[in-house]
C-alpha cells in the first residue's frame, strides 16, 4: 500500500459526552488500509472512548463517521463487525477452558445441520494462522489456558482477522508481555498492515509505536492534537503532543499561552 492510500475510516468532527462531561471535542481521525496508525494519549485523553465510538459501543453525539467514503451509522458492535471493524481489547476476551479453534469461532460457530462443523472450523483457523505466518502455536487444539501471553495475544488477533476484517484495532497488545513476546506481537501487527488491513495500535510504549507505526495520532484532553507520519516526528515531539497538546508549530492552537 502507498502512504497516500485513501482512508477506509474517516471520522469528522466527532463529539461525545457522558452527562455533563464532554469527552471528545470535534475529533477528526483517519485510518488507512495497509498502514499501522498509532493512537496515543495520556490516561483520560479519550482514546478508549474514541475506539468505542468506532466499534459501535458508544453512539456519537455529533460529527460524521465515513467508511469507504460513505457515511455510516454504527449503533452496535454488530454494525461495526458487518463493516469489517474488529477490536481486540486488552482483556482479550478469550475463554481459558476452550481450545484455540473454539475461541476463534466463539459465538460464530460453523454448523453442518444440527452439529458443529469442526473440520471446517479447524481448516479456517489453521489457514488464518498460516496467513499471518504464526509459528509460535504448536497445535490449534491447545487449550488457551496453556498458552503464553504472547500466544494468547496472537490468538486474539487471529480471531479478529478471521472474518475478513478490513480494520483491526488493538488496545495495548504488548502491555503485559516480555521482550521476546513483544517482538513477536509487533511482527504480527506489522504483518497485518502488510496484508492490506488498516491497523490502529493503542499504546503507551513509544518504542513500540515507532517500531511499527506509519502514522501517529495524538489525543490531548479529548481533542486530536495532531495526526502525522511517524517519520516526520521525533520521540520527544510525540511526548510533548501527549502531555501538552502542542510541540513547536505542531498541535493544537493556543490562546494567551493556553492550549485550546
Characterise the protein shown here:
This protein has helices at residues 47-54, 77-83, 100-104, 118-131, 149-161, 179-194, 206-212, 235-244, and strands spanning 9-18, 21-31, 36-40, 62-67, 70-71, 85-88, 111-112, 115-116, 167-171, 198-202, 215-220, 223-229, 246-247, 250-251, 254-255, 258-259. The longest helix is centred in the last third of the chain and has 16 residues, at 179-194. A six-stranded mixed beta sheet has the order 6-9-10-3-11-12, with helices on both faces. It has a four-stranded antiparallel beta sheet with strand order 2-1-4-5, with helices on one face. α5 (149-161) runs parallel beside α6. With 260 residues, it is α/β, with parallel strands linked by helices. It has a domain at 9-87 and 165-259: Rossmann fold (3-Layer(aba) Sandwich), CATH 3.40.50. It has eight helices and 16 strands. It is 31% helix and 28% strand. α6 (179-194) links the parallel β9 and β10.
The CATH topology of the domain at 9-87 and 165-259 is what? Rossmann fold
Major β-sheet strand ordering = 6-9-10-3-11-12
Q: Give me the secondary-structure category.
A: alpha/beta
Helix/strand order, N-terminal first: EEEHEEHEHEEHHEHEHEEHEEEE
Number of extended strands: 16
Termini Cα gap: 35 Å
Task: Specify the number of helices.
Answer: 8
Rg estimate, integer Å: 19 Å
For this structure, what is the CATH class of the domain at 9-87 and 165-259? Alpha Beta
Strand content: 25-35%
Integer average pLDDT? 91
Query: What CATH architecture label of the domain at 9-87 and 165-259 applies?
Result: 3-Layer(aba) Sandwich
Classify the helix fraction into a percent range. Answer: 25-40%
Largest sheet: 6 strands, mixed
GO molecular function: ATP binding; ATP hydrolysis activity
Keywords: ATP-binding, Nucleotide-binding
Domain ABC transporter: 9-246
Protein name: Sugar ABC transporter ATP-binding protein
